[in-house]
Amino acid sequence: ELHQDVSGTGNGIHDGQVSLETTQSGSSYTLTDALHGNTAIYDSNNSPQSNPRQNARLFTKTSNSWGNGSNSNRESAGVDAAFGLAKTWDYYKNTFNRSGIRNDGRGAPAYVHVDNNLLNAFYDDSCFCMSFGDGSSQNANTPLTSLDVAGHEMSHGVTAATANLNYSGESGGLNEATSDIFGTMVEFYAANANDPGDYYIGEKLNMSSGYFRRMDNPAADGSSLGCWNSSAGSVDVHYSSGIGNHFFYLASEGTGAKTIGGRSHNGTTCNNDTFAGIGKDKAAAVWYRALSAYMTSTTNYSGARTATLQAAADLYGTNSQERYLVSKAWAAVSVGT
Ligand code: ASN
Ligand code: ZN
Ligand code: CA
């Protein structure tokens, strides 16, 4: 039977009305995106997170209009995943000429409705796949399929395929920060009225705190580190990521309070310095080059500083303002010489 790429429409929980690339075979359609490495979206049907494929079924139907914006329609979370992963693909392709996670043109399948009451999402390099939970009573049972989370998870694959930062100690914090940085860049890249782009992670997921993490002021959550200290290698990687997230925010936006995407961003430093940012596109280019050319599995924060300074020198020049401001941003999160 002939399989062909067609354009469909979707209504996601977080992303609203979107267009999607789908695949038609005969009189049925599947959420398989031939323009993005054949990324396929499955309803995991509440399979355990240890085996999201167990009861999974590829989203399939006889019309090419998917979801209705509500959690009660099982397709709606699938629409968000399809859209978020397509935008993440486009971000890497159009910004860094990277063709998918492993730069080989292949899309990783994604499973939505994984497990029961799962307030989490993850990437698994061994299955080359991603899982998204439906949330729990802690977040009004809101699926974890927002753009920043989709971008975060797919970016774990990119990290695994490049620096392969070990997921513990300071390298684990850098691994997590990389996913928050590029998840945020994807949110800005895909920005629309539903989700204008900000430096918060998970702000659309109905958490009582209003977010999972803040890059502008990591310590606001009560656990994340906004400044390096000697405990950075022994806290959870989702807390030590705060140092890298804070660096990225300050390098992008500079110091001082701002409203971005309708949210307050505080922009304080660990050393009371004040300086301008280089803009998020240049900061992301520096981080991507550092990740793909210089960082290794054991890079720590001091090594990340060296890697980004070299990347900034490569991209903008040894005596550039960009390289100078990258050094200021590291000093502002207490990473220095
Ligand atoms: N949501 C988490 C993450 O992607 C899952 C994990 O701890 N790996 O970071
Ligand atoms: Zn992560
Ligand atoms: Ca966000």
CATH top level assignment of the largest domain: Mainly Alpha
Strand content: 15-25%
What is the CATH architecture term of the largest domain?
Answer: Orthogonal Bundle
Class derived from helix and strand content: alpha+beta
Predict the CATH topology of the largest domain.
Neutral Protease, domain 2
- The overall strand count is 15
**Low-pLDDT segments, ≥5 res:** none
Q: Helix and strand succession?
A: EEEEEEEEHEEEHHEEHEEHHH
User: How many domains?
Assistant: 2
Question: Which word captures the global form?
Answer: globular
Largest sheet: 6 strands, mixed
The small molecules bound here are: asparagine, zinc ion, calcium ion
Helix count? Answer: 7
Say which CATH homologous superfamily of the largest domain is assigned.
Neutral Protease Domain 2
How does the SSE layout of this entry go?
Blueprint: E1 3-12, E2 16-25, E3 28-30, E4 32-33, E5 39-43, E6 57-58, E7 60-61, E8 65-66, H1 74-96, E9 110-114, E10 121-124, E11 129-133, H2 147-161, H3 169-189, E12 200-201, E13 213-214, H4 237-253, E14 258-260, E15 263-265, H5 280-294, H6 301-316, H7 321-331
Parallel strand pairs: 1-8, 5-9, 9-11
Antiparallel strand pairs: 1-2, 2-3, 3-7, 4-5, 5-6, 10-11, 12-13, 14-15
This protein binds asparagine, zinc ion (ZN) and calcium ion.
